[in-house]
Amino acid sequence: MRSTKLLVGALVGALISTSAMADGSVATVNGVAIPQSKMDMIVKQLAERGQKDSPELRDRIKQQLVTNEVLYQDAVKKGVDKSADVQSQLDAAKQQIVVSTYVNNFVKANPVSDADVQKEYDRVIKANFAGKEYHARHILVKTEAEANDILAQLKKGKKFDDLAKAKSIDTQSGAQGGDLGWSSPTNYVPEFSAAMTKLTKGQITQTPVKTQFGYHIIKLEDVRDAKAPPLDQVKGEISQQLERQKVEKMVSDLRAKATVQ
């Protein structure tokens, strides 16, 4: 008799286990099934953050889901879910989830095409890289007298790099011998750009250049035709920007149709 009961118990346990698997649940707590979809959602979210899927990870998630379900069931028994504060938070969470899903669906239904990306690349990126780029160095000081003294030292054979390191109050470029790298003239204040673009390769300004930052001695290292980054390098950034623009227009159109009092 005892062995029969054990056999029946084992069969019932197997049937329950098979039923849970068929229903797509990872566990049951007091008869309430925890759906496999919950596990899959968490695994997907963790994978997007770089977490590797593994049996150990899934077991940890399962244990947490079981703990959450135990706590949730007891909280419901005590009426916690009925409180005004909880209901308000649930409403806010529901709205946020629905809105987020709606926006994601809109983006999927209105994808940015390769043609759109190419057009934006030509309009913005290539246009901004038209003209020349300049590779310059500078020494920045507070007074005109200091700038004139530096010019005198340069005429005596002092190295520009050494003077920049020792005298420039622009500590970032000064540490690099005054090197500003390659850049468009539009990235500098007008007075600096005007003086820099008049120089020829290797030439140094003969007089201090005054700007809002102080007095500059500028040396032009080289000039080249501006070159836009390749499309593949900026394609992702452009696509994201165009997606944002589509979403912003959709939101703007909906707000324009809405009655807001």
TrEMBL record:
Residues 131-222 form the PpiC domain. InterPro entries: PPIase_dom_sf, PPIase_PpiC, PPIase_PpiC_CS, PrsA_foldase, Trigger_fact/SurA_dom_sf. It catalyses: [protein]-peptidylproline (omega=180) = [protein]-peptidylproline (omega=0). Residues 1-22 form the signal peptide. One of its GO terms (molecular function) is peptidyl-prolyl cis-trans isomerase activity. Its EC number is 5.2.1.8. Pfam families: Rotamase. PROSITE patterns: PPIC_PPIASE_1, PPIC_PPIASE_2. Keywords: Isomerase, Rotamase, Signal. Belongs to the PpiC/parvulin rotamase family. This is peptidylprolyl isomerase.
